[in-house]
Amino acid sequence: MELSSEQIAAQLRCPHDEAGVSFGQVMNLRNLPQIAGAFAAVGIEGQDRILETGCGDGGLLGYVLSLAENVHYTGLEISPLMQQQAQAFNAPFIAANKAEYRLYDGRLLPFENGAFHKAVSVNTVYFWEDALEMLAETCRVLQTGRRFCLSFCEKDFMKRLPFAEHGFTLYDAADIRRLAEKIPFRCLAETRSRDWAVSKSGDLVRRECVHLVFEKYEKAV
To answer: Rounded to whole angstroms, what are the CA distances from 183 to 56, 131, 145, 176?
Structure first.
């Protein structure tokens, strides 16, 4: 079934129905270089408790858990369909207490302060209702001295995609860095990578994404 730009945007925001299953699988595969780059940038280490917001259908969990020894992964989704798909696909990892998948409202993270060592979020920033609030929430659930990688495509690239006109908020790295200055997040790195991607119209495009790595620091009293 051919989807309109508006329907594509809705699926990217929150995959649902039969088409959402396909979107979840396609996003994992076509975003693989970007996702792998984000996890490499944040630097997964042994014993890490990892949080990924916007985790999709969990198709890459085995890869993430293989990055270091004895890590634990938590995936958060606003899409009930994606959470269900992830739980079903990764049932053995969940049973072994290596992973969990939970739903959230897209704003408040349902965890205690300092619950995680590392956090990653790929291509979610366009859909945040309040970018500063989400950055602050991510900072809150990280331990001091721990890191968060936010990965996304910047304005110049996104403006060329027809579906981005429907409910996407576009950012450059500088926009996010300015917001992060208001909370105890220190930007450690800003790197870019390029890969080949297939557009929703089937065309090959050269995509550039940015990986921003932040470290939580102790705020002076």
So the answer is: 27, 12, 14, 12
DSSP letter string, 154-213: -HHHHTTSGGGGTT-----HHHHHHHHTTTTEEEEEEEEEEEEEE-TTS-EEEEEEEEEE
Can you count the helices (H) and strands (E) in the chain?
A: 9, 7
**193-213 average pLDDT score:** 84
Average pLDDT over every residue of 27-43: 90
- Closest by CA position to 37, among listed 144, 178, 175, 153: 153
Contact between 209 and 153 under an 8 Å Cβ cutoff? The reply is: yes
Contact 190, 211 (CB under 8 A): yes
How far out from the chain centre does Cα 139 lie? 15
Dump pLDDT digits (tens) for 54-104: 999 999 999 999 999 999 999 999 999 999 999 999 999 999 999 999 999
pLDDT in tens, 139-148: 999 999 999 9
Residues 6+ apart with CB under 8 A from 134: 53, 107, 125, 128
User: What pLDDT is attached to residue 132?
Assistant: 98
Q: Are strands 116-122 and 142-152 parallel, antiparallel or unpaired?
A: parallel
Amino acid residing at 170: L
> Counting every residue, how long is the chain?
221
